[in-house]
Amino acid sequence: MRLEWVALPGLFFCAALGHAQVYRWVDASGGVHYSNTAPPATAQASIVDIPAQPGPPSAESAECHTLRCQAERADRRLEERTLLEAQRAAERAALAPRPVHGLEFRRYIAIERGMTEGDLLAVAGDPDLRSGGSAAITGPVLAVPIGHRVLVPARALLSLETWTYLPTVSDPFTTTVTLVGGRVTDVERVRKF
Question: CA of 3: how far to CAs of 12, 14, 123, 168, in Å?
């Protein structure tokens, strides 16, 4: 009977250790500590929710029963989750549309017919929308000999591209610049709102 009275408080003590609070804190040298006892008063501690399990497993076991092992695994899971959230945020940002920058009036009046694509980029900047891949056929530019003393007018096939600068709050105009063969051929500006 006396043995039962001695063993009973020991069982309560072991049960209390299994559900004790786990503290995590970083010391002055940057080392991370985990403990079920309160940290020093100077350390800023946080309480970690880890179900502590009794007894270490065998050396070959992949199970993790120690407080330190469980806390390290929790830290790894938290780092992995943070990394995954950062990757997803980067993917969402990459899929988001670029902000519209439009074309100010002072830049619009600097665009001239005949200027090259490079000059247009220097004056107006990168367009909000680009459409290309078309071809433009020019009128007869020179005569090409086909046979003995027979000259036929030749036509040139040039690339056709359209650059569009969308309206903004400060500049409510849509500007469309048409380039044929890498040179500006037409500039159109229309008020949208």
Answer: 15, 17, 95, 86
Cα separation, 120 vs 134, whole angstroms: 19
The ranges assigned to domains in the chain are: 15-95, 105-191
Give per-residue pLDDT as tens, 7-52. 444 444 444 444 557 788 888 888 888 777 888 887 788 887 766 5
Residue-wise pLDDT for 128-164, tens only, equals 988 877 666 666 655 555 556 666 566 666 778 999 9
- Whether 153 and 143 have beta carbons less than 8 Å apart is answered as yes
- The reported pTM is 0.46
Q: At 121, list the tokens.
A: 């980029």
SS3 160: strand
Q: What Rg, from alpha-carbon coordinates, does the chain have?
A: 37
